[in-house]
Amino acid sequence: MVNFVRTLALLSVLSQMAVAFSPLPTTTTVERIRPSTSLNGGGSAFTTSPAGKRATVETVKSKLETSEMVFSMSASSLTVAQMRKLRLAVPKTTTVKVVKNTLMERAVEGTEFQGLLESDLLTGANMWFFIEEDIAGTISAVNTFVKENGKKDSHTILGGVLESTVYDAAGVEAIGKLPSKQDLYARIAGSIKAVPTKVARVIKAPSSKLARAIKLATAEDKEE
User: Fold this and answer.
1) What element of type H or E holds 11?
2) I want to staple 98 with a disulfide (CB 3.0 to 4.6 A). Which of 41, 63, 71, 197 is the partner?
3) How many CB atoms neighbour CB 139 within 10 A?
4) Closest CA to 154 of 41, 75, 79
5) Would you state the pLDDT for residue 74?
6) List of residues 6+ apart from 215 with CB closer than 8 A
7) What is the 3-state secondary structure (H, E, C) of 90-155?
8) Residues 61-83: what's their mean pLDDT?
9) What local confidence, expressed as pLDDT, does residue 37 receive?
10) What is the pLDDT of residue 27?
11) Which among 6, 8, 86, 3 has a CA at the least distance from the CA of 40?
């Protein structure tokens, strides 16, 4: 019995010694991946650095050079999925970008869009739409997105600039109802093509005064 107790005591001591000299368990570190903030106007260390800010300004300037119109809407409270959905909804010739107001101010200075500097559009978190063409299509796509996602009270179009003129929300909506340049070109081309046909119909019409005059003149020439 005594030997059994001694054995247990010895085993207990040995067990404690093993624990004391065994390596500590490795702690598994779970890396928490922060969701990308580039879609929402946030950024990495480079984006928020002076060099990153200069790069953003240059990017916006290049977009402004090729844009017919720009307008904005609030960028707050939109998920990454919603932002992606909106980007896919607008025409391919439109770029959607969240730009900090201070950087937008620097980008528009000296351009036809510098009227923004004297407007109230450079406040809050803004998402900008840089439209190269198809203004009506872009505005329609944004309105559809707002309606389908229940954002009418918070994410309507705030205003924009077209041909150096700043428009409020109502003005942008009115512009969206105008025919596009492509539509106007098509109408003009159609009108030009229709002119010869209409003239021919008028000349050939037996009951027209022009046709009678031409026939009369032709008859007088033959008699002479």
Assistant:
1) helix 2-21
2) 41
3) 24
4) 75
5) 95
6) none
7) CCCCEEEEECCHHHHHHHHCCCCCHHHHHCCCCCCCEEEEEECCCHHHHHHHHHHHHHHCCCCCCC
8) 95
9) 39
10) 37
11) 86
Q: Is 182 exposed, middle or buried (0-12, 13-18, 19+ CB in 10 A)?
A: exposed
Contact call for residues 78 and 40 (beta carbons, < 8 A): yes
Using alpha carbons, list the distances in angstroms from residue 149 to 15, 154, 185, 214.
64, 11, 35, 66
CA 51/CA 83 separation, integer angstroms: 26
Supply 4's token pair. 């059994």
pLDDT digits (tens, 9 = 90+) for 13-69: 445 544 444 444 433 333 332 333 344 455 568 878 889 999 999 999 999 999 999
CA 220 – CA 223 distance, rounded (Å): 5
Please write the tens of the pLDDT for every residue from 146-190: 999 999 999 999 999 999 999 999 999 999 998 766 666 676 776
| Cα–Cα distance for residue pair 154/146, rounded to 1 Å | 9
